[in-house]
């Protein structure tokens, strides 16, 4: 099954987990260790394809909020890779799966690792707000964006990670690794196997 087939037939991104993890590994390997933080020890992961990574400043602020609250929040999404964002956006624009709001691929704060979706969002709003995490509101109740210092280029690196992962496994059909989400990158994204390579 490929990304396009999954997006049009199922609501859960869980089957994307192997591909998403593969792309995340490429991304993490391409970045200085100081740029990204693993928050998995500080949350209860409840999503089927959750990638518990944030930009360092966002992650440190998130962990500070968790420490202040004294309990682990239920994390559905933090970092999202390109196929995950494509699927959520596809479902949003086609009015599938009750997706209340989603950014187009390449533009999401999840792809920039400065957003979280929390299952228990109601009990987290006040403490997160004290640490520069802003609740999206009723338009997207589980969603919070970090409004502190961040790398503006992180989303470009996330797209490059998909392009590089594709190239690593398709040496006769290479993409330009430029961090741009254009028609050629999208065409390869759609035919990428959800189980990864």
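Q: What amino acid sequence fits the structure above?
A:
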């Amino acid at each position: 099954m490929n990304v396009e087939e999954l997006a049009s037939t199922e609501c859960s991104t869980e089957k994307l987990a192997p591909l998403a993890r593969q792309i995340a590994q490429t991304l993490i390997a391409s970045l200085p260790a100081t740029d990204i933080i693993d928050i998995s020890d500080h949350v209860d992961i409840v999503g089927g394809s959750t990638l518990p990574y944030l930009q360092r400043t966002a992650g440190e602020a998130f962990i500070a909020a968790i420490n202040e609250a004294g309990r682990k929040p239920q994390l559905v999404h933090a970092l999202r890779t390109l196929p995950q964002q494509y699927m959520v956006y596809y479902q949003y624009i086609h009015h599938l799966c009750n997706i209340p709001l989603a950014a187009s691929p390449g533009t999401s704060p999840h792809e920039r690792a400065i957003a979280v979706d929390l299952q228990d969002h109601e009990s987290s709003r006040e403490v997160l707000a004290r640490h520069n995490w802003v609740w999206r509101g009723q338009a997207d109740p589980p969603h919070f964006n970090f409004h502190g210092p961040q790398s503006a280029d992180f989303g470009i690196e996330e797209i490059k990670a998909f392009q590089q992962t594709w190239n690593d496994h398709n040496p006769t059909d290479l993409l330009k690794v430029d961090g741009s989400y254009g028609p050629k990158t999208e065409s390869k994204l759609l035919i990428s196997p959800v189980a990864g390579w």
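Q: And what stands out in the fold?
A: The chain has a mean pLDDT of 97.
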